[in-house]
Design goal:
This protein is an alpha/beta fold and 274 residues long. 48% of the residues lie in helices and 15% in strands. β1 and β2 form a beta hairpin.
């Protein structure tokens, strides 16, 4: 019995924080949009506590049906210069990577789309975080690099996601050389969706968030699930997955029926987000 109690204590979940009580992540809400900001001046170096906060923050937001969209940005002139070098020690690596994995999976599994806003360098772990966003808006100030190879390592999270985004050969080039690419090149490769001048960044973010949040939150979640759920599957399996969501989940939503009625009645849909 004593051993069982000790085991439960060791693996007990940490206490949940209020979203505004994080140390390295700033949170704010604006209607249906939740904003999370990397806040570890001055280079937003990623460490385990910061990544745990990010994972918890996204997880908490994912539970809120009133939130339709998550925006992840960063304070300062650097989006993130990567993982803090102190986290690479053999004693820290497993726990840090577990936290990083949790943050990236939280971004992928959140029903809300996640927009990442990059107005500065995203290096190493910073570029990996960007890759796990659903949409990316960047400015010409942004640049991206996976330099882990130059210190005798490789980026495990990028090595998984980058081939899906830029293709295996380009992913290998980025991983094996460690060379940085410009925001313009990142857009060409598909890592960045929209590239806008620095002065126009707030307006561009507002425009995109407005277009997305004008839709049904429940349908947005299903659309994201259909797209990401097909990754890694054969074409036949991906089609089956998407059609199953469409026929067996989407049609059960009040909003899907409301959208059809609104079209027939030539009016704007009144979403209930369910």
């Amino acid at each position: 019995m004593a051993n069982e109690i000790q085991t439960e204590e060791i693996f007990a979940r940490p206490a949940r924080h209020a979203l505004g009580d994080f140390e390295f992540i700033r949170y704010r809400a604006d209607g249906p949009v939740a904003y999370l900001t990397l806040y570890r001046p001055e280079h937003n170096l990623l460490n385990e506590p910061m990544l745990r906060e990010l994972a918890e923050g996204i997880g908490r937001i994912a539970e809120d049906p009133a939130v339709k969209l998550v925006v992840l940005d960063a304070a300062g002139k650097v989006f993130s210069a990567g993982v803090d070098i102190g986290e690479y020690t053999a004693e820290r690596a497993f726990s840090m990577l577990d936290a990083f994995h949790a943050a990236c999976i939280a971004m992928v599994e959140a029903p809300q789309p996640v927009i990442v806003v990059v107005d500065g360098a995203a290096i190493g772990g910073g570029a990996e975080l960007v890759a796990y966003g659903d949409l990316v808006i960047a400015t010409p100030r942004a640049r991206f690099a996976l330099p882990e190879i130059t210190i005798g390592m490789f980026p495990p999270l990028a090595s998984t996601m980058f081939p899906h985004i830029v293709g295996p050969k380009r992913a290998l080039e980025l991983v094996l050389t460690g060379e940085a690419i410009s925001a313009e090149r990142a857009r060409e490769l598909g890592l960045v969706n929209r590239l806008v001048p620095e002065a126009q960044l707030p307006a561009a973010v507002n425009e995109l968030t407005g277009k997305i949040t004008a839709q049904s939150g429940a349908v947005l979640g299903m659309a994201k699930k259909a797209v990401l759920g097909g990754m890694g599957l054969s074409l036949r399996e991906a089609l089956r997955n998407s059609m199953n969501i469409f026929l067996n989940e989407l049609y059960r939503l009040e909003d899907s029926q409301e959208g059809l009625r609104a079209l027939l009645e030539k009016r704007k849909p009144q979403w209930k987000n369910r």
